[in-house]
Amino acid sequence: MLKTDKKYYVYMLLTVNNTLYCGYTDDVKKRFEQHKQGKGAKYTKANAPVEIVYTKEFDTKQEAQKEEYRIKHLSRKEKEKLIG
Predict the structure, then answer these.
(1) Residue 60, pLDDT above cutoff 70
(2) How far apart are CA 80 and CA 42, in angstroms?
(3) Higher pLDDT, 39 or 67
(4) What domains sit in the chain, N to C, each tagged with a CATH number?
(5) Per-residue confidence (pLDDT) for residue 3, from 0 to 100
(6) 18: which strand partners?
(7) What is the C-alpha separation between 52 and 72, in angstroms, rounded?
């Protein structure tokens, strides 16, 4: 497998309804803009994002997806602790 400089990120967004949305991407700023335009995901279309509250970088898409899955199964309190 070839090593590339491409990075992947897990991110959490705070929404207008004070909920947290978690996803992964290779470009956090671009993905945030998509979410703000209602094009990112069904959830953020109904719950507009306000700000990016968490990001973590990974070398592979698989690592980022695994972490996204883990975070999505955390409680709100655990997510807030992760955010700091």
Answers:
(1) yes
(2) 23
(3) 67
(4) 8-83 (3.40.1440.10)
(5) 62
(6) none
(7) 16
Phi and psi based region of residue 36 (left: phi greater than 0; alpha: psi -120 to 50; beta: remaining): alpha
Pairwise CA distance, residues 44 & 12, whole Å: 11
Distance in angstroms (rounded) separating the CA atoms of residues 22 and 71: 7
In this structure, which long-range contacts are made by residues 51-56, counting pairs with CB atoms below 8 Å and at least 24 apart in sequence? 51/13, 51/14, 52/11, 52/12, 52/13, 52/28, 53/12, 53/13, 53/14, 53/20, 53/83, 54/10, 54/11, 54/12, 54/82, 54/83, 55/9, 55/10, 55/11, 55/28, 56/9, 56/10, 56/11
Q: Who's near 15: CB < 8 A, 6+ residues apart?
A: 21, 44, 47, 48, 49, 50
Query: pTM of the entire structure?
Result: 0.92
| The pLDDT of residue 5 is above 90 | no
